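As a next step, we paired sequence with structure tokens, yielding the entry below.
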Amino acid sequence: MIYSTGTISLNGNVATGNGSNWTDSAAQVRAGQTLIILSSPVQIFQISAVNSATQLTVTPAASLAVSGQKYGILVSDAMTVDGLAQSMSQLIQEYDENIGAWETFALTSAAQDITVTINGQQVTIPSVGKLKSDIGKKAAAGENNDITSLSGLKTALSVGQGGTGGKDAQTARNNLELGGDSAPTFSGLSLKTSTSASGILYQEFAIGTTKFRSRSYTERRSDGSNFWTWALANRNNTETYFSFRDDGQLMLSRCMNLGAPVATDWSTLLNNANAPGLFFEARQDNGGASALGSLNFSYLHSGGYKLTTALAMVGRGTSQWASTVMVQGGDGGSAATRYWVFDPVSGDLSNSGGGGWGGSYIFQKAANSDATIKHDIEYNDGQQSYENIKLLKPCTFVYNNDSLNRVRRGIIAQDALREIDREYVKLIPAAPKFDESGNRIDEDDTLALDNNVIMMDTALALNYLIKQFEQAQQEITSLRRELDALKSKE
């Protein structure tokens, strides 16, 4: 019989198998057998030792290393008497090695493990005596009246088994969904009484000797209305009430008031004291780019056209003041949007539209020209304004968002900025927009013409031309007189 499973590699006296199992008892590979490697040329060796399922020691040492070659091991040497005797001797040896172990497995009453050899592999199994001992310690099916302790449990009983599933208090609370040490959580909590104020829930905490408390409850008042009320004890140890009526009305005793603000005291209004009005408390925006304190209004009629208006503060980075922004959205902004931006520093009001409400504008301001607010006043003839107006590049154009494609006349803001005077243009900030994740996605800023500056340059240029025209008229009149004098002498 020849064993040839897998392939073989040989280097010196060490042969390494790939896919072989030379220690399998059924293979009957052992020392003294002949190993033939089908290389070119063919090499023949004698096995000195079977080291493992994939390693042999052979002799003599290989003169030529081989890798991944087919091979054959003559495990029975053509069934000679010597080969048969060796095979029988190996089988008897394996039988003798295992028969004692299997006898111990079956007959011993001791709780011990037995090691036997199966197909050349050593396997450790519990004896029958150990199996009986272990089974005797198990709880039987059905009722058990002899269990006095569960201290040996390595796994806690689950909630479904009547336990908590935890070995400590915190894990038990978590599994029972009761929250942390002092903050139990319930999926539902019902507090019922037969009185007019039912379900009272008290809360109290203390800082030193000072205690703070509140209570919440549902009630039916004398007018028959149902309320959920939260009573908060204030610093004077009296209660402030916050009530929600069953028709949706919110009643706050101090924080929300209706009526006009005190006209003589804006400081009170700006500092959210006792002035009437609706207040949103500021919170810190670390990135300086969010929209805070939005106040929303919506309008919708039977024909649709839902218009929503939101008033908010929008950051412009952490190195400057925020802007106040009013946003109008048609159908939640999906149809069209218009942004009105109020700049507290420059006093500018600009707006930009999107969707069906195209167009970006900045509103002109009436500049204060009083002499008492100016310095370094120098009068001139207005020629610089005249030169500026001459540099204008008249053109015609069509606005991108004009569905009627109307041709208009005017100038381009970028031309005026580059070639005349930067004061001719004003920046219209891009509308502060946000994506679904709250990230700023503002579009590019645009330029507008400052009509105040252009108007003043136009007026001064006209003033300059009038003076030039009048001077020319005077010179023409003088020339005519001289001409008439010459003609009279002829």
Summary: Residues 169 and 181 are 8 Å apart (CA to CA). The radius of gyration is 50 Å. The longest strand covers residues 197-207. Confidence is low (pLDDT under 50) at residues 255-266, 272-276.
